[in-house]
Design a protein that fits this description.
single chain; about 260 residues; alpha+beta; 2 domains; globular; disordered N terminus; disordered C terminus; binds 2-acetamido-2-deoxy-beta-D-glucopyranose; FAS1 domain-containing protein
Length: about 260
């Protein structure tokens, strides 16, 4: 019964909406018409006109280079691609991208990328971006740690050193090097790196937070509850959680040497 009563009311509402929409559209008609013939209207460009140069499109360059599908997907999903696009629209801004190819991403520990939060993905990408245009000669004169767009050289330290023609990069967790130039135009440089640069701020082996000295009140409470919660049990549980992430951290680096070292333990 209730449903049947709502039905006409609903239809009536639709009708009202429809009618008011029609009258609005009709009302706009005369006003909209002169606008198209206005002398101020910008003439449509001829169909064969070349596209305006516009800012440099990083994902387009990487697409053209090929083999950077995972990096491109990350740039798009974090919307850093459009951020870079508007950044490069300012001719005063310079940028160097250290671009890991798909093979570098596939060397990461399985799932390590998926386990990152959205903001960690943003930080990871910004860590691969240096707000300067760097030529290969510039690498020799960089002072370490290098300033990346992830900021904070403490959690996101990045050292770049050169030896001969080699440009070596160290995050503290990963040692890698530059394997080629993808793009360079005086404002933007893109270099291929052999590994994903894993910053401390995201991939550091987890260490337990320093336990603050318990307040007297806490101490009392602990003593009171000690009969219910044996301290020994808690402590023995804390030992493995201290060690396991450390081992994971080393493995996640994917360094064969580190893996070999563990197998000797
Ligand atoms: C940049 O290029 C990519 C790939 O060609 C395209 O999908 C994207 O829309 C472009 N971005 C802008 C802001 O034009
Ligand atoms: C680039 O910057 C100019 C001037 O600030 C602005 O008018 C233009 O819309 C921008 N273009 C893009 C594609 O962001
Ligand atoms: C750079 O890395 C190579 C191996 O990739 C190594 O032989 C060389 O010693 C490194 N140089 C520096 C300055 O770290
Ligand atoms: C980076 O270089 C600085 C300064 O030379 C040094 O103190 C630091 O230990 C280096 N860090 C790494 C991860 O190589
Ligand atoms: C990176 O290289 C430095 C010295 O070149 C070495 O001390 C460190 O253990 C290496 N780190 C990794 C993760 O391989």
């Amino acid at each position: 019964m209730m449903k049947q009563q709502y039905q006409p009311l609903f239809s009536l509402t639709l009708l009202v909406i429809f009618l008011s929409h029609c009258t609005k559209t009709l009302g706009q008609g005369p006003a909209a018409a002169p606008a198209t013939t206005s002398p101020a209207a910008v003439p449509a460009p001829p169909a064969d006109a070349p596209a305006p140069p516009g800012p440099t499109n990083v994902t387009k360059i990487l697409e053209k280079a090929g083999g950077f599908n995972i990096l491109i997907r990350l740039l798009k999903s974090t919307q850093i691609d459009s951020q870079l696009y508007s950044q490069l629209n300012n001719s005063n801004s310079e940028l160097t991208l250290l671009a890991p190819p798909d093979s570098a991403f596939s060397n990461l520990k399985t799932g390590s990328l998926n386990s990152l939060t959205d903001s960690q993905k943003v930080q990871l990408l910004q860590y691969h971006l240096i707000p300067d245009f760097l030529t290969t000669q510039n690498f020799q004169t960089l002072s370490n740690p290098v300033n990346t767009q992830a900021g904070d050289g403490f959690e996101y330290p990045l050292n770049i050193t050169t030896s001969g023609n080699a440009v070596n990069i160290s995050t503290g967790l990963v040692n890698t090097s530059i394997s080629g130039t993808v793009y360079s135009d005086g404002q933007l440089a893109i270099y291929q790196v052999n590994s994903v640069l894993q910053p401390y701020g995201i991939f550091a082996p987890k260490t337990p937070p320093p336990s603050p000295a318990p307040s007297p009140a806490e101490e009392k409470r602990k003593k009171k509850s000690s009969s219910h919660e044996p301290v020994a049990e808690v402590k023995s549980g804390a030992v493995p959680t201290l060690n396991i992430p450390k081992i994971n951290g080393i493995v996640s680096i994917g360094v064969a040497l580190a893996a070999a070292a563990i197998s000797f333990l």
